[in-house]
Design goal:
With about 550 residues, the chain is α/β, with parallel strands linked by helices. The protein has 4 domains: about 90 residues, no CATH class; about 60 residues; about 170 residues, 3-Layer(aba) Sandwich (Rossmann fold); about 180 residues, Rossmann fold (3-Layer(aba) Sandwich). The chain contains 21 helices and 23 strands. The strands form 4 sheets. Strands 12-13-11-14-15-10-16 form a 7-stranded parallel β-sheet. Strands 19-20-18-21-22-17-23 form a 7-stranded parallel β-sheet, sandwiched between helices. It has a 5-stranded mixed β-sheet with strand order 7-8-6-5-9. Helix 7 runs antiparallel to helix 13, helix 8 packs across helix 9 and helix 20 crosses helix 21.
Length: about 550
């Protein structure tokens, strides 16, 4: 290495990047890296990132020039950038666009491969050979029905496809946004929401029309969905996480567009109406009588001449819906999410079948502009009672986590935090129903779980929104697509192991701008596996620019 410079970044030949947290350029470098690198770990002083082919392909799809990446790395680095890393990320970047899929005829597609070496690789690859109908010079012919399957198979082999086949013209449905919503409030898309819609649609060009918008909870991803629907003005299928979210989408459509109630259908366990705009759930689509039975409702993807399919919380897309999505590549597909992190590591499937990342804004950027609330994140580490410590010592790995998560001393701390935030609107959220029942009973809190009937659940949500209820205990049913805009304190008593995805969703519940500060508390048992898993959950928060404060409760 040559002499050191003053930058905050140490770049290593194994594609890892080490960022110095206390450096004056930390914030600028963190935001720069977010566009093309993945955060791996984030202890106090040095954060580690990794550059991967998928992270570079997403940057290429966002039309970030490779020179912008290489020049930025040189500017921020403390030592010279390893030449092999520059070579490899340049090759990865160039790979996106070397395989272009276009329409040949009504029943055939042509895969043009502009690199002769890659052409020979994919043509002779045994798992891929089943897709090739014919070869003409640098072009491979593919059945139109294999559009999704071939893209999925190619990205698994290391070759992303730029899909320029275009889309079916869905059934026309004029969708206009209101200037004033039904509550009497002026309505219009914010500047970044307009940018997100345009980044997805790309003026109707073949290079647009499919992909993922990544924005924090509370920033109005649903509004971006409405804006996209209005831009395309076709019949639309919306797939979301639960029945509460179905109703929220319906309410937003009626409140902020000129769509009529007769044009909106719900396809759930309670109601099965297919209308020009139909809203359903992932759970509904993956329902089957038993493990051997077919998925009864996946046919909804072909029930209507949809011009757009919206995947809300796309990071939760289940495997059976992935399979259905391979068959509907001729439909425009919009994914909405706060994080592209998937616990099953299938981010490349989202890239291939929904589309690449089209738009992304760091949480802290929107926070600095007042669009989402500033959040203070605190982790409390507390000891367990002696008898629970003994149970923990004798338990297996899974048992250890649950015993630590259900530490009975958390009730005492929750009570203290509620007292400290007497004027705030508080959500107490956890993973284990027995633990939630114990806390709700001890502190006399209303509780919502998956077994709470819909009418009672809605009644409690409404009471919380109105201020009649100041503290509400909720299970993981509140992780996703629950609109509680006045909540500004979250007390997390237990979670899904080290899920960064869940951390993102839970933080998002308290990021709607309001006059009060937002506080996110996580309670973990000191020195246990729960504390270890908590380190992984923090990755998401640190990636977005938040710092965790550690407190001890005796």
């Amino acid at each position: 290495m040559s002499g050191s410079k003053s930058g905050p970044l140490i770049i290593q030949s194994d594609h890892t990047l080490m960022l110095e947290v206390d450096h004056v350029q930390y914030n600028a470098c963190r935001d720069f890296l977010a566009a093309f690198a993945e955060l791996v770990k984030s202890p106090e002083f040095i954060h580690t990132y990794r550059i991967t082919p998928l992270s570079i392909w997403n940057a290429a799809a966002l039309e970030i020039p490779v020179t912008e990446i290489t020049v930025g790395l040189a500017d921020f680095c403390k030592y010279d950038v390893p030449s092999n890393l520059i070579t490899e990320l340049t090759e990865w970047h160039a790979t996106y666009g070397k395989l272009i899929l276009e329409k040949e005829s009504a029943d055939k597609l042509r895969l043009q491969v502009t690199d002769s070496f890659i052409l020979e690789q994919v043509y002779h690859d045994k798992p891929l050979q089943k897709f090739w109908l014919d070869r003409v010079d640098d072009t491979l012919l593919v059945s139109a029905g294999e559009r999704g399957n071939v893209k999925q198979a190619l990205i698994k082999a290391g070759y992303p496809v730029k899909d320029l086949c275009g889309y079916l013209t869905g059934a026309d449905l004029q969708i206009a946004l209101r200037d004033v919503d039904l509550d009497g409030n002026e309505f219009g898309l914010r500047d970044y929401q307009i940018d997100a819609v345009e980044a997805f649609y790309k003026s109707g060009r073949k290079s647009g029309g499919s992909g993922v918008i990544v924005l924090p909870c509370g920033s109005g991803k649903t509004i971006i969905g409405l804006g996209t629907m209005a831009r395309i003005s076709n019949e639309t299928l919306i797939v979301t996480t639960n029945n509460i979210s179905v109703h929220q989408w319906r309410d937003e459509l009626l409140n902020k567009t000129h769509v009529t109630p007769e044009q909106i259908g719900e396809y759930t366990g309670l109601t099965k109406n297919i209308k020009p705009i139909t809203i359903t759930t992932y759970q509904m689509l993956t329902y089957r009588k038993n493990k051997e039975a077919p998925f009864a409702n996946l046919g909804i993807f072909n029930e209507q001449n949809w011009g757009l399919i919206v995947y809300d919380e796309v990071h939760l897309l289940p495997a059976p819906v992935f399979r259905a999505t391979t068959e509907i590549q001729a439909r425009r597909r919009l994914g909405l999410t706060a994080t592209l992190v998937r616990e099953d590591k299938k981010e490349d499937d989202v890239f291939a079948l929904i589309g690449p990342k089209r738009y992304d804004v760091p949480w802290r950027v929107l926070e600095s502009r007042g669009y989402i609330a500033e959040a203070y994140c605190t982790e409390y580490r507390l000891p367990m009672p002696r008898d629970e410590e003994l149970n923990y010592a004798h338990a297996d790995k899974r048992g250890k986590f649950r015993i630590a998560a259900e530490n009975s001393r958390k009730i005492e701390l929750v009570k203290e935090l509620i007292t400290n935030h007497a004027d705030d609107n508080i959500l107490v959220i956890g993973m284990y129903i027995a633990q939630l029942n114990a806390i709700a009973k001890a502190l006399n809190l209303p509780l919502i779980t998956g077994k709470t009937k819909h009418d009672e659940r809605q009644k409690l949500y409404n009471a919380f929104k109105s201020g009649e209820i100041k503290v509400l205990a909720v299970s993981k049913v509140a992780n996703f697509a629950v609109d509680l805009p006045d909540a500004n304190v979250m007390i997390q008593i237990s979670g899904m192991y080290g899920s960064r995805q869940e951390e993102a969703q839970r933080l998002g519940r308290i990021l709607r701008p309001n006059k009060r500060r937002s506080h996110f508390y996580t309670l973990v048992s000191k020195g246990t596996t729960e504390q270890q898993f908590g380190l992984n959950r923090q990755l998401f928060l640190v990636e977005q620019g938040y710092k965790y404060h550690i407190q001890y409760f005796q």
